[in-house]
C-alpha cells in the first residue's frame, strides 16, 4: 500500500483510498462524482494506522448525512472500506460512530419533521432503520440470531379513520405514553395512522410494558372525543426480527399505515354524509359507496398483522393482547398465539 505525505506531515493512504472508492462505486455507491469528501482521508488514515476510527467515522457519517446520502448507502460504503483491507466487516465502534454522525447531521432537519414526527414527538421510520442497522451489526459481530435479542413490538391504537385535531390529540397522547413506558431514548417510531413500533429486547418484560402502555394510553385519552378514536383494548403484537436488515426495513413498510389511507376506502362513520345512490346500480359496487369493510385483498397476510382473515388462522409474530374484551368481537376469530 502506497502512502503520500500531505503538507501537514500526515500520511495519506492513497492506495487504500482508491481501492475503497473502486470497491464502493462498483457495488453500492450510486453517484461516483460525489463519493470523495475530505472526511474519507481521516478514516483511511485511522484504518491504515490500526487505531480507533470512531472520531473519523463520526465525521464521515455527518458529512454523508449533510450531503443527502442515505444511512444505508453510507454504511455499505464503510463496509467496502474494510473489505478492501481484507476484513469482512467494520468494527462495531466504527459503525456506531458513523450512524451517530449521520443522525447528528439530520438534527438540523428536525424542525421540518425529517427525523421527528411533529404530532407524536417520536422518531420517524427512517431513523428507526438506523437503530435497526446497529442491532443487526452487533448480532453479526457476536454471531447470534438477531431474533434472539430483539423483536419489533407493533402497537395499533386506531379505532377508525380520524383527521384534524382529533388525530393530533390521539397522536400526542400515544407518543407521550410510549416515551413514558419505554424511555425517551428507546428505539421507536411512528408509522402513521395510529400505528407505532418499538425495538424491544427479548429479555425485557414486554408483557408488563404492554400492560403499562395500555393503562397510560387509557389515562391520557380519557377525553370522550379522543377515547372513541382509540381501539379498546389497544392491539399489540410482537414480531421477531427477520434475518436481514433489509427485510426488517421492508417489514416496517408493510405494517405502516400512511395518512391519509391512500387508495384504501375508509369505513363509513357516523359523521359521514349519506352516499349518493345511483338510479341503475346499488350495493357495494355502486358509485360513492364506502361500506363498512375494506375491499377484499387490500389487507392480505403480508399487510395484516393477523395474517389470513380466515377463522382459525393467525399471522406473523407473538400476540400479547391476551386481555381482549368482548367489546372488540371482530378480533375473536381464533386462538391467540
Secondary-structure blueprint:
Layout: E1 4-5, E2 11-12, H1 14-27, H2 38-48, H3 54-66, H4 71-83, H5 92-106, H6 125-142, E3 150-158, H7 164-182, E4 188-192, E5 195-201, H8 206-220, H9 224-227, E6 230-240, H10 245-255, E7 318-319
Antiparallel strand pairs: 1-2, 3-5, 3-6, 4-5, 6-7
Strand line-up across the major sheet: 4-5-3-6-7
**CATH fold-level assignment of the largest domain:** Alpha-Beta Plaits
Rg calculated over all Cα atoms: 24 Å
**N- to C-terminal separation?**
57 Å
Strand content: 5-15%
Mean pLDDT over the residues: 74
The biggest beta sheet, please? 5 strands, antiparallel
CATH class of the largest domain reads Alpha Beta
* Helix-residue proportion: 25-40%
Reported CATH architecture of the largest domain: 2-Layer Sandwich
Please summarize what this structure is.
This is GGDEF domain-containing protein. With 337 residues, this protein is α+β, with helices and mostly antiparallel strands.
